[in-house]
Write a structure and sequence with these properties.
37% of the residues lie in helices and 15% in strands. With 201 residues, the protein is an alpha+beta fold. The protein is globular, with a radius of gyration of 17 Å.
Length: 201
Amino acid sequence: MKSHYRDDDEAGYLDRYAAAGRDLALRVYTSRLIGRDPSLVMHGGGNTSVKGRTKDFFGREVDVLWVKGSGWDLSDIEPAGFPAVRMETLLQMAQLETLSDADMVREQRAAMLDPSSPNPSVEAILHALLPHTFVDHTHADAIVALTNNPSGEARIQELFGARVLIIPYVMPGFVLAREVAKRIEGVDFAGVEGMVLMNHG
C-alpha cells in the first residue's frame, strides 16, 4: 500500500479546520486518505476516531472520543462528521456484562457533547478501549481476502506473526468491544502494529 500523506496537504487541512483543533483537523485529512482508496473501504465500510480533550457547555475540560458518525463517508468527511462522545461513558459501558444495541445507541447519544451531531459509530466503545490516540478501522480487500476462508487465521498468523492481534469474528458493536477488551488486557502494544478482526477487517 502506497502512502498518499503529504506535508503540504496536511498544512492545508490544519489551516482550513483550525477551529476544530489540530488533532481533529488531522483526523479529517487522514480519514479522507483512507476513504478515497476503495481497496481499504470495501462498500464504504470502516470508521476512524481520535481521542482528545475539549470543553463542554459549561467550559469544563473533558476527555472525548471524536468518532465517525453514521451517514458520513470517509472520503469527504468534515469535522461535523465526528461527534464528540465522553470517554468516561464509553469506558463505563465497556465494563458492562451485557448491553443491547438499543441501549448502546441511546447511551452513546446521551454522552455526546452536541446532541445535534450524528449517531456515533457502533464501534465507538471499541475505539475508546484502544490506547492509541488515532484509530483506523478499515475493511481492506487484502485482509478480508485472507480472513474469509477456512484457514484464514493460520494464514494471518503465518504472514504477520506477533505484529498483529487476531480477534475471532463476533458481531460488530458491544459484543466485539467486549471480546477485544478481554484480548488486549495486559498486552504490550509496543510491538503490535495492528489488529485483524477475522471476517471483518
